Hints:
By secondary structure, the protein is an all-beta fold.
Amino acid sequence: VQLQASGGGLVQAGGSLRLSCAASGRTFRTYAMGWFRQAPGKKREFVAGVGWSNGNTYYADSVKGRFTISRDNAKNTVYLQMNSLKPEDTAVYYCFAQTHQTSWGQGTLVTVSS
Length: 114
């Protein structure tokens, strides 16, 4: 599975961004897709995920109520709507797809200025 992420950028605190991640290739047995992020000097951490067949969603506590993950099965695309952004949300965001293995996108930088 190949993943192409987009939508990162620079935004002021309190603003919004929407990330997209399109999957291609052997996507017919996708179990879940979602996002991790890695801030400078920190470990990569889980942000949000969605079950591909049932649509169940999962969030890190730090983003609950601010971020919303959604999917478009027909387009093999997952989205992350990020609202009320904070400077601590600044990171490179990586999308992932869980099939028989885990595939990663190239990362997209989100910078939130105070």
